[in-house]
Structure formats: C-alpha cells, structure tokens
C-alpha cells in the first residue's frame, strides 16, 4: 500500500525518484521492473503531478485530461499494462470557433488534409509536404528555425491556416511562434496522426491503476514526502536524499520536480560546476494556466457539443492575447457522464494560458476579485454555446498560476516545463552530478502526458546503465 | 551462445516489446524498422532488455548496429559468445 510519510523506509535504495508525475512514475515503474529497488517520493497527498483531478460536492474535475496523442496507447501498454492501455479512447469531436473560421474535426491527418484543401484552399501538395516535413523532424537536428519561419515557408500570409495549425498546440504546451520549429513539428506530428485520445473513466481511475502497478512492481511509494535536499559527495556524486528530515541512501536519484528547482534548490550550490549552474539559471520556464471548473447540477444534461472546443474572439492568432489576463481565447473540455460513470454528471473545464506575473504580487482581496472576474467572463463566454449555463451549474471554481505552483512546486506555476534550452541541462545533469538524473516536462517536446512518460523511460534506461549489473542494493 | 540462440534471444526480446507483431517472416538484411512498427523507444527497450537479461551494454554510438536482424546478430555475437 502507498504510505504517507517516510516511516519504515529502508536505509538505502538503488534509486530514489523525487516526484510522482507521469515522468517520475513511469521511470520508477520501469526501473523496479528491471529489478532495481526504488523509493518514490511525492510531496502531495495524491500521485500524478499535473495529471490530476479533484472532487467537490459530488463533482469530479479533471485538470490536465484534455487530450493526448495516439502514441500514449503504446507507451501505456509497454510500460504499464494492457489493461490500462485498453481504456484509452478517441475523442469524437474537436471544434474550432473564432472570427476566422468555425469547424469540427477529428484531428486526424486525413481530416486535416481535407479541411486544408477544401475549406482553406491550400494545394494538396503543400499540405502533404508540410505534414511530411514536420513528421521528419528530430530533436537532435535543430536547424535553428522558428515556428514562425516554418509557417512562412509553407503558408505565407495565411494567418487563418497558422491559427488552425498552431492554436491547439499553444494550448497544449504554451509554445509560441518564436519557439524552435522542431518543438512545434514534433508535438504537432504526434497529435496529427490518428487523432486525440482520452482515458475512459478519467484521471483518478488512470492514476489509481498506475499506482496499483507501481506497488505490484515493488516500488516503495510514499506521499506527503517532500525531498528537501539531494545529498552528494564533494565531487558531486549522488549518495542520498533528505526527505521529511530523514536521510535515505541512494545509488542514484531521479528528480521529476521542476528542472530549475532540482538544480538550483535541491543541490548544494557548490557541487555543480559554475558554468552548469549559470546554464540552468538561464533556462526559461514555460507559461502557466488558468482554469475555470464548472460542475452541472444533477440531472442537467447538455447535447453533445464536442469534446474539446477551441474558442477565441481575438481577430487572429496571437500568443500575447492568449496569455493576457483579459482572456479572449479559451479551450472548453466537456466531460459527459458516459465517460464518468462513477460520477454521472457533466463537467466543463475552461482552460486558458496565463502568466504567473499577472496573478502574483497583489493583495488577497484583489486576487479573489480577479478570480471572480475570470469566472464571470467565462460564464458570459460559455453562454454563447449554452445560453442557460448560469442556471445549470451548482459548482464553480477557479485555478490560477498560483494554484499550479502550490500543488506541484513548479516555479512560476509552469504548466509545461521549460523552453527548449532546458533539454541539454536536463540531459547533462548526470555529467555534472554523477548519479543524479532529471525527468519530466522540459523543452516542450518532453512534455504532456506522452512526452513526460516517454522521457521517464528514456531516463530509466540511463539510470539502469549507470547502476550497472551485479551490485543491486 | 550459438548464432541461432542469439537470433532467438533477439526475436524473443522484440516479441515481448511488440506482442502484436508477427515475428515469423523477419528478413535478416532488411531494416527492422521497415518490417515492424519499431520506433526509437522500442530500440531503447531492446537495449535495456539486453542489459537486464545478458548484462550487455550497447553504447549509444553503436545503436545503428541494431539496424537489421543480421547486423544485430553480428554485433552481439562476440559479446554473447561466452554466455
Ligand atoms: C492545465 C493543464 C492542462 C494540461 N492538459 C494536458 C493534456 O490535455 N494532455 C497532455 O498530454 N498534457 C497536458 N498537460 C501537461 C501534462 O499534464 C504535463 O506535461 C505532465 O503531466 C507533466 O508530467 P511530469 O512528469 O513533468 O511531472 P509533474 O506533473 O510536473 O509532476 C511533478 C511531481 O513532482 C512532485 N514534486 C516536486 N518537487 C518535489 C519534492 N521536492 N519532493 C517530492 N515531490 C516533489 C510534485 O508534487 C509533482 O507531483 C496539461 C498541464 C496543465 C497544467
């Protein structure tokens, strides 16, 4: 059973994993199945990290289950179980509604090709060339181009096409037209193959099943266990972790916490080479999110309006406008009771991108007032689709960048890890501090449910190599 | 291990990673990626499985040796001969 706190932990493990986000959980499971002794520490009461949910008065809200790429089925099947993978289902309808166009799609390559050719009058050859080009992109051959330049090459002057191709990705990972083209290309092609998927039953059931697997694999899972320091020899080699005031020995440590916090807060300042610290300090974190959770009364149902609705009242695609506190762009995720038999009610979650700075440094009173304003504006906007919405709900709650920071300890409440330059810092950490690894959302491409889980696997392989064979703890 | 045993060992590993694939007709000198739905994550799994089962380390610079079944056998033969 998962235990709270660190009572009864062993003196030492092959691996201590700090953080039970999808990266940390997948890494821990993989290493335990490879025969390593693993301790998984999570500071919160729940596993899952940003892949989370909460219950309120008969409602159940998913925080980060809007959709993930088809690749998740294979990843879950390989590194978790077939039983869990079999519960992944495709979203039926993804809608766009903005001043430039209105459409519904299943977000597959076929359907996007049809839309681009028939509705947007883009030559079929251009569409195919664009898809092939993005599909061939690899994170190890960055040609230095920005996403803006990529779009300029294929669709010059077509702000409507850029909006269709970019807006969902900006929601999914906070990236902008100034981010590297490869980070866009990789994420876009992951989604743009066979559509967008969800977990039937919701995040709580998903994480619950993963937790069962972790325990079956022999991982020692602890919640309410906050790692305070990563302990090293003077030469930087990792020897353990201080957690809840207790020292636990470790031949290796994997941090699934925020990359900058791992390097700059959990390690003693003098263990790392100065230039590595400087490089880590320079890493930009991604932006954060606001969400408004709306729970409909028992018995209130709505007609199918799509699973995911990308709405905007901004004239064109504009990442600054998408981040602004005066929200003009929202994604509605609609959770119908069919997919949530355990609850039997409809929930709507409105998400928007947000800047941490806009929500901090103010009095509690102002903060509350701003949250209330966001809730009102969201209800106004939603009433364009559901005119009776104000009578239909009986629970409404707002999350801001501060909420995300509190629950995950991510600097700036970052929803999607770091910008691209975080990747080398994350990957080269073991050279600076032997035995210390980082996994979890970095560099846009390693983020999202699929990116984080796969990065967990990649790092598990590195840890397993580092530990070598024949001297298991 | 004999060459045949090595071949079987590799096929077993791939079969475990890709349970739905038919491993019967794999050709020795055609890239594995062209015959199976193998992605870069699967190659990592092969590397990790070789380490776990046979204590063999395949460094990153040698990953391209795993291109075909034939090249994989040839690459692993000296490492597995004494197992
Ligand atoms: C609003 C929102 C919506 C999203 N929607 C989607 C979506 O629809 N599809 C999708 O694919 N992705 C989505 N994402 C992104 C996705 O959820 C994340 O990229 C992914 O879950 C991150 O996993 P991770 O491994 O990086 O770990 P995280 O989820 O960041 O978890 C890190 C964990 O480490 C713990 N921790 C940190 N420090 C310590 C410490 N010192 N001691 C102990 N524990 C510690 C934290 O408490 C946390 O549990 C969304 C994100 C947000 C914020």
Reading the helices and strands of chain B in chain order gives HHHH
Class derived from helix and strand content of chain B: mainly alpha
Approximately what portion of the residues of chain B adopt beta-strand conformation?
under 5%
Question: In what range is the share of β-strand residues of chain A?
Answer: 15-25%
Total of helices of chain B:
4
Instruction: Specify the biggest β-sheet of chain B.
Output: none
Counted by DSSP, the helix tally of chain A is 17
Whole-Å distance between the termini of chain B?
Answer: 6 Å
Largest sheet of chain A, in brief, is:
8 strands, mixed
CATH topology label of the largest domain in chain A: FAD/NAD(P)-binding domain
The named CATH superfamily of the largest domain in chain A: FAD/NAD(P)-binding domain
Shape of chain A: globular
Q: Helix/strand/pairing class of chain A, anyone?
A: alpha/beta
Briefly, what CATH class of the largest domain in chain A? Alpha Beta
Task: Please characterize this protein's 3D structure.
The complex is a heterodimer of chains A (473) and B (83). By secondary structure, chain A is α/β, with parallel strands linked by helices. Helix content of chain A is 38%, strand content 22%. Chain A has three domains: 3-67 and 76-84 and 202-284 and 417-467, FAD/NAD(P)-binding domain (3-Layer(bba) Sandwich), CATH 3.50.50; 108-191, no CATH class; 285-408. In chain A, the strands form four sheets. In chain A, strands 1, 2, 3, 11, 12, 13, 14 and 20 form an eight-stranded mixed beta sheet that branches. A seven-stranded mixed beta sheet of chain A has the order 9-8-16-17-18-15-19, sandwiched between helices. In chain A, a hairpin with a 4-residue loop joins strand 8 (94-97) and strand 9. In chain A, helix 1 packs parallel to helix 9, helix 1 (22-33) runs parallel beside helix 17 (448-467) and helix 5 (124-135) packs across helix 8. The two termini of chain A are 22 Å apart. With 83 residues, chain B is mostly helical. Chain B has one domain (3-80): Non-ribosomal Peptide Synthetase Peptidyl Carrier Protein, Chain A. In chain B, 55% of the residues lie in helices and 0% in strands. Chain B has four helices and no strands. In chain B, helix 1 packs across helix 3 and helix 1 packs across helix 4. Chain B starts with a helix and ends with a helix. The model of chain B has no long low-confidence stretch (mean pLDDT 91). Classes of the chains: A alpha/beta (473), B mainly alpha (83). Chain A binds chain B through residues 30, 34-35, 74-75, 78, 454, 457-458, 460-461, 464-465, 469-470, and chain B through 17, 41, 44-45, 47-48, 51-52, 55, 57. Bound molecules: flavin-adenine dinucleotide. Flavin-adenine dinucleotide binds at residues 18-24, 41-44, 49-51, 63-68, 226-227, 256-257, 289, 291, 351, 404, 408-410, 415-417, 440-441, 447-450, 452 of chain A.
């Amino acid at each position: 059973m998962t235990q709270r706190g660190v009572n009864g932990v062993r003196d030492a493990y092959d691996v201590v994993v700090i953080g039970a986000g999808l990266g940390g959980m997948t890494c821990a499971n993989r290493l335990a199945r490879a025969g390593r002794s693993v301790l998984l520490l999570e500071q919160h009461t729940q596993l899952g990290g940003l892949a989370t949910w909460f219950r309120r008065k008969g409602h159940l809200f998913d925080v980060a289950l809007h959709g993930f790429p088809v690749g998740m089925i294979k990843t879950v099947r390989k590194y978790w179980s077939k039983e869990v993978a079999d519960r992944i289902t495709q979203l039926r309808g993804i809608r766009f509604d903005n001043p430039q166009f209105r459409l519904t799609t299943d977000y597959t390559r076929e359907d996007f090709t049809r839309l681009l050719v028939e509705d947007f009058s883009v030559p079929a050859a251009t569409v195919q060339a664009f898809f092939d080009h993005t599909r061939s992109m690899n994170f190890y051959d960055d040609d230095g181009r920005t996403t803006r330049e990529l779009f300029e090459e294929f669709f010059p002057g077509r702000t409507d096409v850029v909006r269709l191709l970019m807006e969902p990705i900006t929601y999914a990972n906070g990236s902008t037209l100034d981010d590297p083209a490869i980070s866009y290309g990789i994420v876009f092609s992951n989604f743009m193959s066979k559509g967008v998927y969800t977990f039937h039953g919701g995040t709580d059931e998903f994480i619950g099943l993963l937790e069962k697997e972790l325990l079956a694999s022999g991982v020692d899972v602890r919640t309410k266990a906050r790692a305070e320091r990563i302990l090293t020899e003077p030469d930087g080699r990792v020897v353990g972790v201080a957690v809840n005031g207790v020292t636990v020995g470790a031949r290796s440590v994997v941090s699934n916490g925020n990359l900058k916090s791992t390097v700059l807060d959990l390690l003693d300042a003098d263990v790392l080479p100065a230039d590595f610290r400087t490089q880590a300090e320079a890493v930009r974190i991604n932006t954060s999110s606001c969400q408004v959770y709306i729970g409909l009364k028992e018995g209130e149902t709505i007609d199918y309006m799509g699973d995911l609705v990308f709405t905007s009242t901004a004239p064109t695609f504009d990442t600054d406008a998408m981040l602004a506190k005066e929200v003009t762009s929202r994604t509605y995720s609609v959770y119908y009771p069919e997919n949530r038999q355990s609850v039997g009610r409809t929930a709507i979650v409105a998400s928007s991108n947000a800047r941490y700075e806009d929500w901090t440094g103010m009095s509690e009173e102002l903060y509350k007032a701003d949250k209330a304003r966001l809730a009102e504006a969201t209800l106004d906007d939603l009433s364009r689709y559901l005119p009776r919405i104000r009578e239909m709900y009986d629970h409404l709650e707002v999350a801001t960048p501060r909420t995300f920071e509190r629950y995950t300890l991510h600097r700036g409440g970052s929803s999607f890890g770091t910008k691209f330059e975080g990747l080398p810092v994350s990957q080269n950490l073991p050279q600076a501090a032997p035995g210390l690894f980082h996994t979890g959302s970095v560099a846009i491409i390693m983020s999202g449910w699929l990116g984080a889980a796969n990065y967990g696997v990649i790092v598990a392989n590195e840890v397993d190599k580092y530990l070598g064979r024949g001297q298991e703890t | 291990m004999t060459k045949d045993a090595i071949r079987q060992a590799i096929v077993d590993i791939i079969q475990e990673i890709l349970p739905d694939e038919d491993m019967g007709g794999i050709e020795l000198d055609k890239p594995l990626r062209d015959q199976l739905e193998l992605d870069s994550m699967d190659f990592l799994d092969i590397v990790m499985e070789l380490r776990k089962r046979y204590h063999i380390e395949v460094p990153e610079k040698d990953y391209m040796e795993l291109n075909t079944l034939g090249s994989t056998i040839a690459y692993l033969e000296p490492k597995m001969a004494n197992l």
